[in-house]
Design brief:
This protein is α+β, with helices and mostly antiparallel strands.
Length: 222
């Protein structure tokens, strides 16, 4: 591969970032939450001799920061790190909550995909299991026989509903690099920073470190 030839695979780009910034990106072991604005820092250190483009860096950051290992690191750590591995800003509680929500939704999607896959006939899932010796018998329609103890009902505590955030559209004059914003993703707004503007496409780095492409109509004042 020539020195100026760009990498093509996103995993290769992540490995290249780990090689170039070994105190910031990690392939194995524990990872650390990245500082907000890390994309801008990376872009400033890249030159023509590097094997990655800004677009590839955005794609690599999106994959790196959406991994379960990274999302857990946002929940478990108190501070972010910069490209040199130095301690950066403190992680806010709402950022940890957002990472936990993304992780829970990602796991739910994987579980749903596994459930939707057809199982082979005669496989373990289709084999009827004999009742355990210590398992109480039940009568017709699952009714318990007389004298059988009933398990106490479990009381589930419901969380109080969170206060709805009032959103205000981001004025056009504030659409600039470095501006803190909120992005409407699904039902919940997510905090982020504008790091690049390309005509109608606005690239925003979210609190998790993920970089997304959106439009001005989805941006609100932070």
């Amino acid at each position: 591969m020539e020195a100026n030839e760009k990498l093509k695979d996103v995993n290769e780009v992540i490995s290249y970032l780990a090689e170039k910034f070994p105190s910031c990106f990690f392939i194995e072991g524990d990872v650390k939450p990245l500082k907000i604005g890390i994309f801008k820092d990376i872009a400033e250190r890249l030159d023509e001799a590097d094997k990655v483009s800004k677009t590839q860096v955005r794609q690599a950051l999106r994959k790196y920061t959406s991994s379960w290992k990274y999302l857990r690191s946002v929940q478990e750590n108190d501070h972010r790190i910069d490209l040199d591995g130095q301690q950066a800003e403190k992680l806010e509680e709402q950022h940890k909550e957002y990472a936990a929500k993304v992780l829970e939704e990602s796991r739910a999607k994987v579980l749903e995909r596994r459930k939707s896959k057809p199982r082979k006939e005669g496989g373990p899932a289709n084999r009827s299991k004999p009742p355990r010796k210590d398992q109480p018998s039940t009568g017709p329609r699952g009714k318990r026989f007389e004298g059988q103890k009933r398990k106490p009902d479990i009381q589930v505590k419901r969380r109080a509903p969170k206060k709805k955030i009032e959103l205000q559209k981001l004025p056009e004059e504030r659409v600039k690099q470095g501006e803190k914003v909120r992005v409407q993703l699904g039902r919940a707004p997510v905090e982020g920073v504008i790091n690049e503007i390309n005509k109608d496409d606005i690239h925003v780095e979210l609190v998790t470190g993920m970089v997304i492409k959106t439009q001005i109509e989805n941006l609100y004042s932070a």
